[in-house]
UniProtKB/TrEMBL annotation, chain A:
This is ABC transporter permease. The chain crosses the membrane at residues 33-53, 92-113, 141-162, 168-189, 201-220, 251-271, 310-328, 358-379, 408-430, 442-466, 473-494, 522-540. It comes from Streptomyces ochraceiscleroticus. Keywords: Membrane, Transmembrane, Transmembrane helix. It comes from the Bacteria.
From TrEMBL, chain B:
It is a peripheral membrane protein. It is found in: Cell membrane. Its main location: membrane. GO terms for molecular function: ATP binding. It comes from Streptomyces ochraceiscleroticus. This is ATP-binding cassette domain-containing protein. The keyword Transport applies.
Length: 546, 330
């Protein structure tokens, strides 16, 4: 494999960057909808929170009480991090620093991979690089695009919060922290783009790093109530909180983002000029000359295409479940030394109820994230279609329904697998933390995880509906998944009316373990999932392919 | 265009297909008899690939009759596809599947694969089946689909510009394979821009333009429709040449005559020339290139300049002085 034959190191300089300006304009032109949508939706959500919190907690005493009770609760700390300041701004930062950091990271990784590895994988880069385009121009243009997007995001957040009356310094700090976290992961994405020839895998790798950063921070914050855990200092998502916007800003933490992004981007820069176009540092190995018996038709093919993704998700859920399970017991540990928090907890139903609430929150979060897997698995169909790989398969003796079913089975059953693994991880993590894993408790936790499935299937069904009936809008399924995530994550803090919360399929599920179970919501969700899938398949049968 | 036998391998009549406001197919006809190699020609964007995708049941016809091996390609797609092998002009492979795996997969998705023939084809096409997806070059990706198609046990091969990216040696192997398929009684629909390929392989061809069939027939029949160039030096002044049907681009310089004539009207022209006494005569037979180029060019087909002999006849009868464009008689 000559994929990474060392390029002559001497020939560098400005020629490496030739064409960056043109590529930057091309990227901005291609992203003229995507970037403004991300920036405005995310930025205004963060900025808009201050008004909502002001209406909900209008006295300083109420806010102080909220801060105290939240800091006393390990589950809440794991979710949002500790409350550093109980002003309105401080609460916005508490609620949004982690959430905004993760979403800014996702936006940045999508931008960077889209303009680097995806261009190479599709062969478009070859045509561009045959023109006056330097070896490092694509990565530079991608990073500049990500920089502009994150700068705009920081500006929208800072200006929006300042305009709604929050201190300017804190607003700027929060905006810069979230944008800085985005830039850090833009840098990480440039490395991932060098490692693999697949844009999908590069996105997955970067996404896994984002997930790891979140889990590290969550574990660290669950263990300590003042953000002092080293785990939160390893995690860039943790840095975002350590900036302490509105609570005595620690501006120097922003330097961590700058340094981290520079190092990560620098590694990407170094690697990109040392490899061949279209190749990677993890080159493709030769495969078998004959197909194994398992590759025997539409189902065999779909399994072959999706199994790695499913394996990755299952592994991620096992780890996340284990970590969250391990900190679930933290709630009762923290109570002892503070009489006031003990009273709050008792009012909330005692330590067992509190552990259940935490586990239920974690299960709900795993469910919403699993919907991302399910939608992605369904939309593989659209990817195969637009990538012109479905055409030769459908020119074989494979009906459309069979072809679609082969991927849908993996999407629907795969989400069961992912949730089951996550549930087992949660139960085992919890059991090993409390040193006692009885069968009833284990069953309750795994059952709670599996109870999320009807809601996941609704989103998978809606994705199928879009793919079958409105194929050009199939990617809108991501919007539905994102909206459910946003409703579940920040909806409660915004005190949205119930009908708005009910738009998310997850809000219809009982809070398990611990809650009351009735069959009705499950049946409704399953019915909606089945109907939308069926309508999508009927649409698919009638429409043109390609 | 002959009457369609009910057993035609492919029968398309008056096929229409629009994408929004774009009219891709506008009354297309196509008839392919069982066991023939049928050339499917036309300029870029004429609607060849759209037609093929209708035949594969990937697109639904707006209007018109489409029968494939006696069945409906939309409703009986799966059943039909067991008997069909398809090679697109731009083969895309899965990144993480080897070429050999893709060949086997396609075989399993069709009627099955002849293992011995698969091995033999891999050797003839010099294809390494252990490489994966994108590590193949354009030509090698085509070979993957070609080996899968030729090794499959099917009745009909639909090949859409299948040799794009193949080197001349491989092009030769491809032609041998198509001839073997024909000898085994299989039907081939071959869309191609390579005239040499069409000339070497096709029993009959159909030429389409702007979603319509403009010409269809055997190569001999089509040659007949083309023009022969004649230049002659005469003993006396030419007489009445411009009034003859089928004469184009007549250029008379004193006793030198140069003209083009529809090949089936050549006889009358020669007669007229010999009446004036022929000193020397050069006659260039028609080439297929001329025929194709004439159909590919946009502006000429609309004027009916020799494309359809019937129209030329009618013109000549109505206006004997030769109203056809380009007559430069003194």
């Amino acid at each position: 494999m000559t994929a990474v034959a060392a390029a002559p190191a001497g020939r560098r300089g400005s020629r490496d960057l030739a064409g960056t300006g043109a590529l930057l304009r091309l990227a901005l032109r291609r992203d003229r909808l995507m970037i403004p949508l991300w920036v405005l939706l995310l930025g205004l959500t963060v900025a808009g929170l201050s008004g909502t919190l002001e209406a909900l907690y209008d006295t300083a005493a109420e806010r102080a009480e909220l801060g105290r009770s939240m800091n006393a609760n390990a589950s809440m700390r794991a979710l949002y991090g500790p409350v550093f300041g109980d002003s309105i701004g401080g609460l916005v930062a508490w609620r949004m620093a982690g959430f905004g950091a993760v979403l800014a990271a996702v936006m940045s990784l999508l931008i960077v991979i889209r303009h680097t590895r995806e261009e190479e994988e599709t062969g478009r880069q070859e045509l561009l690089s045959a023109a006056m385009v330097g070896r490092r121009a694509p990565i530079s243009a991608a990073l500049l695009t990500a920089f502009l997007a994150n700068a705009a995001l920081a500006l929208v957040i800072a200006a929006g919060l300042a305009k709604s009356g929050q201190p300017v310094a804190g607003s700027l700090a929060l905006g810069l922290a979230i944008g800085g976290c985005g830039m850090f992961f833009a840098g990480v994405a440039t490395i991932a783009a060098q490692l693999t020839e697949s844009a999908r895998l590069a996105k997955g790798l970067t996404g896994a790093v984002v997930g790891l950063a979140f889990v590290l921070r969550a574990a660290g914050d669950a263990a300590t109530d003042d953000g002092s855990s080293p785990l939160t200092w390893i995690s860039p998502v943790g840095w975002c909180q350590h900036v302490r916007a509105y609570a005595g800003e620690r501006w120097w933490v922003l330097l961590l983002f700058a340094a981290g992004a520079a190092v990560a981007g620098g590694v990407g820069y170094a690697l990109t000029a040392r490899r061949d176009m279209g190749m990677s540092f993890l080159p493709a190995r030769p495969g078998p000359a004959r197909a194994p018996a398992s590759l025997n038709g539409a189902f065999g093919l779909a399994w072959r295409l999706q199994r790695t993704t499913l394996l990755g998700w299952a592994a991620g859920f096992a780890v996340a479940g284990g970590v969250f399970g391990g900190i679930a017991d933290g709630a009762s540990d923290m109570v002892g030394d503070n009489e006031q928090t003990r009273r709050i907890l008792e009012r909330m139903g005692g330590t067992q109820a509190l552990t259940d609430t935490f586990l239920a929150t974690m299960v709900g979060m795993l469910g919403m994230v699993a919907a991302v897997y399910a939608a992605g698995a369904v939309l593989r169909l659209r990817g195969e279609e637009t990538g012109e790989r479905a055409e030769p398969v459908l020119a074989g003796a494979v009906g459309r329904l069979r072809w679609a079913a082969s991927h849908l089975v993996i999407a629907f059953l795969g989400s069961v697998v992912v949730m089951a693994v996550g549930g087992v991880g949660l139960a085992v993590g919890y059991g090993s933390a409390v040193g006692d894993l009885d069968g009833r408790r284990f069953g309750a936790v795994v059952g709670a995880a599996l109870a999320q499935i009807p809601a996941i299937w609704v989103l998978a069904g809606l994705a199928t509906l879009l793919f079958g009936s409105l194929p050009k809008l199939a990617t809108a399924a991501w919007g539905l998944v994102g909206a459910s995530l946003a409703l579940g994550w920040i909806g409660p803090a915004l005190d949205l009316p119930q009908w708005a919360m009910d738009l998310s399929p997850f809000s219809h599920l009982p809070k398990l373990p611990g809650g009351e179970v009735t069959a009705t919501p499950f049946l409704w969700l399953l019915l909606i999932a089945a109907l939308s899938t069926a309508v999508g398949l009927v649409g698919l049968r009638r429409r043109d392919m390609g | 265009m002959t009457a369609l036998a009910p057993a035609a391998a492919i029968h398309i009549a008056d096929l229409h297909k629009s994408f929004g406001r774009t009219r891709a197919l506008d009354g297309l006809d196509l008839a392919v008899a069982p066991g023939e190699v049928h050339g499917f020609l036309g300029p870029n964007g004429a609607g060849k690939s759209t037609t093929i995708r209708v035949l594969l049941g990937l697109l639904r016809a707006d209007r018109g009759a489409v029968r494939l091996l006696g069945k409906d390609p939309w409703h009986d797609a799966v059943e039909l596809h067991r008997r069909i092998a398809y090679v697109p002009g731009d083969v895309t492979l899965w990144r993480n599947l080897s070429g050999g795996e893709v060949i086997d997969l396609y075989g399993r998705l069709r009627g099955g694969l002849d293992g011995a023939r698969r091995a033999q084809l891999l050797e003839r096409f010099e294809l390494d089946p252990t490489k994966k997806g994108r590590t193949y070059s354009k030509g090698n990706r085509q070979k993957v689909a070609l080996v899968a198609a030729f090794a499959s046990d099917v009745d009909l091969l639909i090949l859409d510009e299948p040799t794009s990216g193949l080197d001349p040696l491989m092009e030769e192997v491809f032609q041998e394979c198509v001839m073997e398929e024909r000898d085994r009684g299989r039907t081939v629909l071959l869309s191609s821009h390579l005239l040499s390929e069409v000339e070497a392989l096709c029993d009959r061809v159909s030429i389409i333009r702007k979603g319509r069939t403009v010409e269809s027939g055997s190569l001999a029949e089509l040659r007949h429709l083309t023009r022969t160039s004649v230049s002659a030096e005469l003993a006396g002044p030419p007489n009445g040449l411009s009034r003859l049907p089928g004469v184009h681009d007549l250029d008379v310089q004193d006793r030198r005559v140069r003209l083009q004539v529809d090949t089936d009207k050549l006889d009358a022209v020669l007669r007229s020339l010999t009446e004036s006494g022929v000193r020397s005569l050069t006659s260039t037979p028609p080439t297929l290139e001329e025929l194709f180029l004439r159909h590919y060019q946009d502006d000429m087909a609309g004027t009916g300049a020799g494309g359809r002999p019937a129209a030329a006849d009618a013109n000549a009868a109505a206006e004997p002085s030769g109203a056809e464009g380009g007559v430069t008689s003194r």
